[in-house]
Amino acid sequence: MNRHGMVVPRTTPQPHRWWALAGFLAAVIVAGGIGGLGVAGTAATYNDLRQPAWAPPSWLFGPVWTILYAMIALAGWLVWQRIGFTGPLWLYTGQLILNAIWTPLFFGAGQYGLAFADIAVLWLLILATTAMFWRVRRIAAVLLLPYLAWVTFAAALNLAVWQLNT
């Protein structure tokens, strides 16, 4: 962005663009992978919890997150192409870190309240990232909307599970 707050497109050599996309995909895979490290049997744990009637089946989470992670990576890459690794991508990185932390908190440690605090801050960071992305490249912001919606749902589910299992 220039000093007037306007987005100034930057040029990136073509081969580097595709390597960068691979990097963004790797980042979301790492975030998802960290979430699963040392947390075996999440489906069994999830199924053993008291849940609200509207809780989805455990098999749904894998396909949903696969699609969301692809969209998250693409959104980050689109913004990176436009302005490089600047403020909006620091927010993006922060939300990926909180995303990675949630699974070990919820499933690994059984800390449903702490996991809810994490997902609440995660939600705020996704919202802020989406707003920043909107100013840079609207399609990138639109790509984050399903993620924001899913995390909204997941936060409600986290809260319900916390209340039902304490």
Layout of secondary structure:
Blueprint: H1 14-36, H2 42-48, H3 61-83, H4 87-108, H5 112-136, H6 138-164
Tell me about this structure.
This protein is an all-alpha fold and 166 residues long. It has a domain at 67-166. 77% of the residues lie in helices and 0% in strands. It has six helices and no strands. It starts with 13 loop residues before the first helix and ends with a helix.
Helix content: over 70%
Task: Give the helix/strand class.
Answer: mainly alpha
**Record field, number of beta strands:** 0
Shape: elongated
Unreliable residue runs: none
SSE order, one letter for each helix or strand: HHHHHH
The first-to-last residue Cα distance is 48 Å
Oligomer: single chain
Radius of gyration over C-alpha positions, nearest whole angstrom: 17 Å
Biggest sheet character: none
- What is the residue-mean pLDDT, rounded to a whole number? 90
Number of helices, where a helix is a run of at least 4 consecutive DSSP H or I residues: 6
**Beta content:** under 5%
